[in-house]
Amino acid sequence: MSGPFDLSLLRRWPDVEAAGLVAADAADRLILDESASARAEIRPGELVVIGDAYGALTLGAASDGADGIRVHQDALSGEAALAANARQWAPEARFASMGLDAELVSGARVVLLRLPRSLDALADIAATVASAAAPDAIVFAGARVKHMALAMNDVLRTAFERLDVTHARDKSRVLIARTPRAVTLPEPRAGRVDGLEIRAYGGAFAGARIDIGTRLLLQHLPGDAPAGTADDPWIDFACGTGVVASAWATRHPDVHVYASDQSAAAVASARATAIANGVADRVSVVRDDLLSRRADASASLIALNPPFHSGSAVSDRVAPRLFADAARVLRPAGELWCVWNSALRYRPVLERLVGPTRQITRDPKFTVTVSRRR
């Protein structure tokens, strides 16, 4: 590829698409501009891109001549969007999607990073890069100014000797980190709540604790639900750190649980949580966008604490996608147990997409409902 790539062509699909939700922004453009001279000096395979929401950094760099780009995106929907955008607009781009590990960054000399909002996620990324990248590696880490904090500078300084800050442009800024320190690969953070071991890599929702919505759901989940076999497992949908999955498996020694999340950090955390609780033989954790790996009418019980963010944007279109796919996977008369912020008023949506819905409990902030598949 050659010549500047028109980032306005990019789409967010299969992620939520709506007015005001963009696939690329000024921060992507600034990262590409600030890193241009450094990228011009590297060889194929020496560029790594991390946190590229929908492909702007990867395809922008490929249009400038980068080859053999290694890419890590936490969200599986981001990987799918990058692949779709490449097929449509940049079929000659050469890149590979990889996990956040030493192989991703081994020998890398330039790293383009969209800064995550979570400081723990940034710490894990910085440590991973510093542990295996080339000694002269340079990291160009950018975001919209409104999503940046001074603490991000401190996190990067724990993994790199030098940090420079660019001037802001179009309400965006780039941090440039150089000279990796001698650090080790990150381990998951550990916590113990109500007798349950929790493990969390940076960026996993709620970290090594139980958020109040999930806690309320756990207090009311049924203990005598049908199935729970290897062929008809209970499903922890959008599982996060796998708290529900491991709690279910711990409470019910014969039950098999299927846990699914599109976040790579969540999936790694849920697997570590299952291992820490000694239930990994009965908890299957998969990375999936929605429940696409599950057949229609293949489950009797699903638990869900739906997210309401698409990237950094709040959107009321995220949860309905999950409700609809849960309905697809549920057997007739199967149940979706759901906890949600009461202000979001999801009950009519659940009635429409899944089936008859009744309230189980409600506190000042959250509501727990059960919807029976019609």
Which features does this protein show?
374 residues; alpha/beta; Rossmann fold; 2 domains; seven-stranded mixed β-sheet; 11 helices; 18 strands; 26% strand; Methyltransferase
CATH topology of the largest domain: Rossmann fold
Fourth CATH level, the homologous superfamily of the largest domain: Vaccinia Virus protein VP39
Q: What is the element string, with H for helices and E for strands?
A: HEHEHEHEHEHEEEEHEHEHEEEEHEHEE
E-strand count: 18
Q: Calculate the terminal CA-CA distance, rounded to whole Å.
A: 51 Å
Percent in strands: 25-35%
Class by SSE composition: alpha/beta
Largest sheet: 7 strands, mixed
As a whole number of angstroms, the C-alpha radius of gyration is 21 Å
What report would you give on this structure?
The chain is α/β, with parallel strands linked by helices. The chain has 2 domains: 174 residues, Rossmann fold (3-Layer(aba) Sandwich), CATH 3.40.50; 184 residues, Vaccinia Virus protein VP39 (Rossmann fold). Helix content is 30%, strand content 26%. The chain has 11 helices and 18 strands. The protein is globular. It starts with 25 loop residues before the first helix and ends with a strand. The relative contact order is 0.10.
Topology of helices and strands:
Elements: H1 26-39, E1 47-50, H2 56-63, E2 69-72, H3 76-89, E3 95-97, H4 102-105, E4 110-114, H5 119-132, E5 138-144, H6 150-157, E6 160-165, E7 172-180, E8 189-193, E9 196-200, H7 212-220, E10 234-237, H8 243-251, E11 257-261, H9 264-276, E12 283-287, E13 299-304, E14 309-310, E15 313-314, H10 318-329, E16 330-341, H11 347-353, E17 357-362, E18 366-372
Parallel strand pairs: 1-2, 1-4, 2-3, 4-5, 10-11, 10-13, 11-12, 13-16
Antiparallel strand pairs: 5-7, 6-7, 8-9, 14-15, 16-18, 17-18
Helix pairs in contact: 1-2, 5-6
